[in-house]
């Protein structure tokens, strides 16, 4: 829903009805992840994408039918064996797309969801996408971290189970389809729901207000991170030099990071890029970074000599070998990068490889599926935004 929230908000608040299409399941080389959305607006314009172009026309037409009938629909789109250019995915993937009519009548709880999105508060929307009783299709449950859920799925026990399960997915920023049996029995069959977790954007902290930092910060924004640049030198850490980032902080980086960790503002999706290659900044902030959750990416820039010197300084300051094993240094993949912009691409590439478990080789030199999975549901990296 994040993909289309501004247009959806405008239509819903105007009392109009829109057709919302959501990718709820993918197989093989599907072009968009679970949670991707497309909206057929009340004026018949379209916002968002569910397939990058492969089946958008067919989904648009289905949304028109759903709006006309008022009945939600779950449709599978896959490659056609007879004609790869028929309606389907020429990449060979499979998408399950759920299309539902959305209005104040069909989804009265959406107003509160929109307020959460605009305020940057985490929220999960649970939608029934398959059920033995068609009357249950499209029912919603809105789940927040620490308040009672809103809405109803038609089964009080299922509501209770989904509230618990959706909170777990929301805390990890995960969106996925789940199946239950009658009465909310886990691992049962018959009732499928899609849990869309909309968590705030993951954090990226760039330490060091240098030209490489400006390029790395731009890459971070492209990847959907909330980017903070931190440097103790106010002469360099200015909004004029970093106009596109979310925050520019003039503070000792180790002190700033310690306070943010203590306040719980970093999670296991976070990234820390230490680009100063200056021991008086590097060592203290890296020591603090080792307190971050295990899934965080921690990287530091520098030559081989700088890297070896940094390791010795960190050991002398109390870092363990387990701590040092978490450190990506020298940061970035071997792309032959020279300029700050090229180096930023190599850093972004290593962050992506670490996140998704890729090998980093050229795709032409590999076999098997392109969109690798680490196992489990897809992690949503999209930031909450109303734009």
Notes on the structure:
By secondary structure, the chain is of the alpha/beta class. It is built from ten helices and 17 strands. It has helices at 5-13, 56-69, 110-119, 156-172, 211-222, 253-262, 279-289, 304-316, 321-325, 340-356, and strands at residues 18-27, 37-40, 46-48, 73-78, 94-102, 123-130, 140-143, 150-151, 174-180, 191-198, 203-207, 226-231, 247-250, 271-274, 297-300, 327-328, 378-379. The strands form three sheets. The chain has a six-stranded antiparallel sheet with strand order 8-7-6-10-9-17. A six-stranded parallel sheet has the order 13-12-11-14-15-16, with helices on both faces. α5 (211-222) links the parallel β11 and β12. Residues 204-351 form the XdhC Rossmann domain.
């Amino acid at each position: 829903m994040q993909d289309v929230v501004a247009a959806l908000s405008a239509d819903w608040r105007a009392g109009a009805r829109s057709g919302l299409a959501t990718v709820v399941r993918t197989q093989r080389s599907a072009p968009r992840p679970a949670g991707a959305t497309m909206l057929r607006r009340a004026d018949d314009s379209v916002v968002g994408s569910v397939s990058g172009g492969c089946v958008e026309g067919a989904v648009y037409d289905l949304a028109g039918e759903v709006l006309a009938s008022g009945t939600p629909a779950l449709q599978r789109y896959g490659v056609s064996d007879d004609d790869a250019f028929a309606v389907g995915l020429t990449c060979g993937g499979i998408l399950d797309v759920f299309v539902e009519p959305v209005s104040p009548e069909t989804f009265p709880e959406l107003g509160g969801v929109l307020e959460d999105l605009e305020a940057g508060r985490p929220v999960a929307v649970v939608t029934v996408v398959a059920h033995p009783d068609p009357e249950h299709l499209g029912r919603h449950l809105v789940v927040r971290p620490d308040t009672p859920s809103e809405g109803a799925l038609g089964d009080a026990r299922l509501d209770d189970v989904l509230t618990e399960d959706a909170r777990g997915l929301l805390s990890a920023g995960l969106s996925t389809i789940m199946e239950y049996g009658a009465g909310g029995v886990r691992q049962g069959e018959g009732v499928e729901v899609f849990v869309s977790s909309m968590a705030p954007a993951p954090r990226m902290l760039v330490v060091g207000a240098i030209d490489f930092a400006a390029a790395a910060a731009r890459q971070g924004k492209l990847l959907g991170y909330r980017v903070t640049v931190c440097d103790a030198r106010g002469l360099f850490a200015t909004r004029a030099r970093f106009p596109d980032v979310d925050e520019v902080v003039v503070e000792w980086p180790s002190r700033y990071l310690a306070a943010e960790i203590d306040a719980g503002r970093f999670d296991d999706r976070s990234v820390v890029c230490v680009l100063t290659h200056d021991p008086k900044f590097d060592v203290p902030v890296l020591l603090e970074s080792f307190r971050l959750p295990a899934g965080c990416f921690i990287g530091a820039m520098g030559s081989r000599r700088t890297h070896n010197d940094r390791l010795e300084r960190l050991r002398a300051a109390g870092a363990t070998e387990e701590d040092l094993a978490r450190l990506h240094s020298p940061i970035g993949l071997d792309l032959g990068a020279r300029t700050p912009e090229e180096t930023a691409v190599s850093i972004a590439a290593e962050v992506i490889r670490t996140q998704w478990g890729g090998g980093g080789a050229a795709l032409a030199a590999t076999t098997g599926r392109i969109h690798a999975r680490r196992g489990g549901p897809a992690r949503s990296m999209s930031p909450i935004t109303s734009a």
